[in-house]
Design a protein that fits this description.
204 residues; mainly alpha; 6 helices; DUF4254 domain-containing protein; DUF4254
């Protein structure tokens, strides 16, 4: 089984586990060994799934502004956790390929393997929910037809992205692409980097 096949299987397991209760407050019950690649992939997709549904909730027209702000704060915290997990995945790849000698003319890819897998995780959610919309009994035939067409596009994207990830990993393994680690350097949650936060601290 390729890494993309394994990742897809884990992402779908996470999505299906979440929808047993379909509750943003459900506790994650990660079935894999702690800190293994499988564990990280499952946890990353669980966060994506919770965020997906929080983004739905926050768009409720009559939502209480105080509740909306709480949800926005929660989304921010989840975004940081998600970024941390993606960087863990990249570190796993970095360690896995650290003994590879890159060609002198090896390319640098614009996107690391883990951020490609991040998009792969989101795609699993898009396909899950578009599949539901394409067969929703209370929807019009026009709605179901449009969603079926969108689903076909998403399935094609899944195939293409899977191929692209496999090719990237193969190119790194063969020295054609140089594996480098990058940090996202997110600033908005850092009290020393976000001027709104540090200016407030300075006034105290």
């Amino acid at each position: 089984m390729s890494l993309t096949e394994k990742s897809w299987e884990i992402f779908n397991q996470s999505v299906n586990d979440y929808h047993i209760n379909d509750d943003v407050n459900s506790e994650e019950n990660n079935p894999f060994q702690a800190n293994s690649l499988e564990w990280i992939l499952y946890s990353k997709n669980w966060i994506d799934t919770v965020q997906w549904h929080l983004e739905d909730i926050i768009r409720e027209e009559d939502i209480d502004p105080t509740e909306a702000l709480k949800i926005k704060r929660r989304i921010d915290k989840l975004n940081q956790k998600r970024t941390d997990l993606v960087e863990q995945i990249d570190f796993w790849f970095y360690k896995n390929f650290e003994n590879i000698t890159s060609d002198p003319n090896a390319r640098i890819n614009s996107e690391t393997p883990a951020w490609c897998i991040d998009r792969f995780s989101i795609l699993s959610l898009k396909i899950y929910h578009m599949s539901i919309e394409a067969s929703r009994e209370d929807a019009s035939e026009e709605h179901k037809l449009q969603c079926s067409q969108k689903l076909n596009v998403l399935l094609e994207q899944k195939k293409d992205l899977s191929t692209a990830i496999d090719q990237l990993l193969s190119d790194i393994e063969n020295g054609k692409v140089k594996m480098k680690l990058y940090k996202q350097m997110k600033m908005y949650n850092d009290e020393s980097l976000n001027p709104i936060l540090y200016q407030k601290m300075q006034k105290k």
